[in-house]
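[09:14] KT: can someone run the structure on this one? pasting the chain below
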Amino acid sequence: MTLGARTPRDQLDRVIALVKRSFRYLWVTILVTVLGAALAIAFAVSRPRSYVSQTVFLHREVIPSNLLGGDAAGNARNMGIRFREMVLASPLLEKAIQKFDLYAPVVRDAGMNAAIEELRAAITFRTSGHGTFSIEFKGDTPDEAQKVTEHLAVLLIEWEREIQLESVSVTKKFLDEERAKVVTELDDREKVKAAFQAAPDVSPVRILLATDAASEGLNLQNHCWQLIHYEIPWNPNRMEQRNGRVDRHGQKNLEVHVYHFVGAGFDQAKPAGAPGDLDGDPGRIGRRGGGGAPAARSRRRAGP
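[09:31] RB: done, structure tokens below
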């Protein structure tokens, strides 16, 4: 037999030695495994259970944003942000804590604000799109988790309804006030118009100051036959419209006098002169010391 060669007997002895060596550390492996399993079971048993409940609610606009020319996607995104801020607001969370006696030890030891922060951390608000929103809450029992999410959804909907009603009330109040102002202004205008149209022996109102809004739809020919233009409009038709308030059918006076301002020295201007030769400046009429003077235009009427 050659020196150093291994026989089958030697190989068998080698395998048996390895097995014995492995069994020597087997109990350590088994002990570690058993201890790990025991710790995992103990942790799972001792760990407080938490249950997640989700409440889904829908929100539909009375008037869709696209009909008002708005961005529907952007409006839905803004609505989700607003709802999230509302559901995580302290007043809403405080009501839920008081109703279901949540985090009693925290309230007792650290106060309501700390309990509100605990509840806020346990709530998840999601926007699913198409007006769908959800509220999730982790509670100690399934019943508690479900009641808290449902209660928060109800509070959120009621709060949103109050905000909408308040907005409608403020808008209605504003519109009523504006309507009252308009009605009062119209009544005042009608009173002034009636007094100006009345005979001189009935009403002392003989001078009427009006803006260009009175150039249409107002008839003042009963006892008025003189008109002064404080300024001359660019459109000559507008000027004729003004004149037509008194120079119209039903005018009792044979002549209607119309006055407007012109530049000083306009009658000495040369027709062939270059632009800018006029000494007067109609633009100065509205300022103190202007050189303008009123010019009259008389219209003789054939009869009333």
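[09:33] KT: thanks! The beta strands are 51-58, 123-129, 132-139, 226-229, 255-262, 293-300.
[09:34] RB: yep, looked fine to me
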